[in-house]
Amino acid sequence: MNIITSFYEKYLLEQITRTSAKVPEHVSLVLSETDLLHPGGFVKLRDYISWCRQLDIRITSIYVDVLDTEEQLRTEIIGQLTRKLSEVLSKMPQGLGFEIYTADGELSARRDATELLVYISVGFGGREEVTKAVLSVLSDVKEGRISPSDITEATIESRLKVKHEPDIFIRSGGKHLSDFLIWQAVYSELYFTDVNWRNMRKLDILRIIRDFQKRQRRFGR
After folding, report:
1. Is the separation of the CB atoms in 197 and 41 below 8 Å?
2. pLDDT in tens, 7-66
3. Is the Cβ–Cβ distance between 135 and 75 less than 8 Å?
4. What is the pLDDT of residues 195-211, one digit of tens each?
5. Nearest to 27 by CA among 151, 194, 204
């Protein structure tokens, strides 16, 4: 990192910390499998999580979009990514907790958090998550555990994997968003960056946080 970049990082950090505007509590990030499998992709992920900790972000949820491919190969890729993610996160400081979900929505690995909680979904999108939540509610209705008249938004939300609503959704590389957290992110701020994941720097994350602080959130109003 050259001296100009270092100076600009310090400048941005001062702007972020000196304002009365809060940093986002929950940041979501959409990646693709190629982002992680590219040389240095997992190192960049570890760096990103460390930057979140330094900025006192409490939650980050990350969706790894597994591209459409032959089913057996897709299953192998998901298994490879899940194992590597668990390995990388397990080696990070104990204050960091995580939950890793596979493409069928099953919890693959977890650790409790005291500082930062990281949710990672490998190929498990929002439509599948909402569908599973609705089916779970219908099962309870069928078994007589709840009445149809008792079903509310909170009933659905209680069955979702991620219970927290993102403050800001980041998509690197200027691509379209996925359906990740489609229920939870309805009022989230969106940020598209043309910087590819492999080129993402702390400087870019600081810019995103500063941009968020300057926005006036309307929450659908």
Report:
1. yes
2. 999 999 999 999 989 999 999 999 989 999 999 999 999 999 999 999 999 999 999 998
3. no
4. 888 899 999 999 999 99
5. 204
Say if residues 180 and 63 touch (Cβ distance below 8 Å): yes
State both tokens at 155: 């009933």
Q: Find out whether 190 and 177 touch, Cβ atoms under 8 Å.
A: yes
Q: Phi/psi at 170 (nearest 5 deg)?
A: -110, 130
Coil, strand or helix at 30: strand
Contact between 98 and 120 (Cβ < 8 Å): yes
Q: Three-class SS string for 136-174? A: HHHHHHHCCCCCHHHCCHHHHHCCCCCCCCCCEEEEHHH
The tokens describing 9, both together, are: 């990082």
Contact 116, 54 (CB under 8 A): no
E runs forming strands in the chain: 26-32, 59-65, 96-101, 107-111, 116-122, 168-171, 189-192
Question: Is 83:50 a contact under the CB 8 Å cutoff?
Answer: no
The residue with tokens 């940041």 is: 27
Rounded to an integer, what distance in angstroms lies between the CA atom of residue 62 and that of residue 27? 9
What domains does the chain contain, in order, with CATH numbers?
A: 23-124+165-214 (3.40.1180.10), 125-160 (no CATH)
